[in-house]
Amino acid sequence: MTDEELQVMKSALRLLTRRPHSRRELIDKLMAREFRYPAVLAVIGECEKRGYLNDRQMAEDYAVELAARGHGDFKIKLKMRAKGLPAALIEEELAGLGETSPASERALQSLERKMPALNREPDPRKRREKAYRFLASRGFDGEAIRNAIDRMGDSDEYH
Questions:
Q1: Are 105 and 145 within 8 A, CB to CB?
Q2: Measured between alpha carbons, how far is 44 from 28 in angstroms, rounded to an integer?
Q3: What is the mean pLDDT of the chain?
Q4: pLDDT given for residue 2 in this prediction
Q5: Which tens digit of pLDDT belongs to each residue from 18-58?
Q6: Contact yes or no for 23/48 (Cβ under 8 A)
Q7: What is the pTM of this model?
Q8: Cα dihedral across residues 26, 62, 53, 15: positive or negative
């Protein structure tokens, strides 16, 4: 390794010890530090070879984390795209996430946490509209939202 590559590696390791990064994210951050592109690519390759940088693992962990926070598929996709993850990998992770944690279940859980605030609204129509807007802002699709609202409407908590 050249002196420049050693400096790039030190920067890369500092970034990777704080939190996982995608390949694209790490390249962007290293380039912002004004390292030369060939040195950055050499270090990225070395980090991948040693297992310090793994887009697949990062995508899986990030999708699970966002789902646990109550985000819908659309918002998860946007956040993963912002991290620079490849579209095919995002779609693959969302498909896997749909099997382990269906969007309708996540929507219902998010709505259950929001119910104390929603129950302050006396008008049932307005309460339903607020619930719909809340879930839409979390990135859920219409089907998951309707399913969650209908299921909450059946429970005693909602009334």
A1: no
A2: 11
A3: 92
A4: 87
A5: 999 999 999 999 999 999 999 999 999 999 999 999 999 99
A6: yes
A7: 0.84
A8: positive
**Dist CA 92 CA 23 (whole Å):** 17
Domain ranges of the chain: 3-53, 56-100, 103-154
- What residue has token string 């946490």? 113
Classify each residue of 118-133 as buried b or exposed e, where b means 16 or more C-beta atoms within 10 Å of its C-beta. Answer: beeeeeeeebbebbbe
Q: How many CB atoms lie within 10 A of CB 30?
A: 24
pLDDT (mean) for 131-151: 94
The dihedral through the CA atoms of 138, 144, 147, 151 has a sign that is negative
Q: What is the CATH number of domain 3-53?
A: 1.10.10.10
pLDDT digit string, tens, across residues 76-93: 999 999 999 999 999 999
Query: What does residue 34 show for φ and ψ, rounded to 5 degrees?
Result: 65, 35
Structure tokens given for 155: 């429970």
Task: Say how many CA atoms lie within 13 Å of 44 toward its Cβ.
Answer: 19
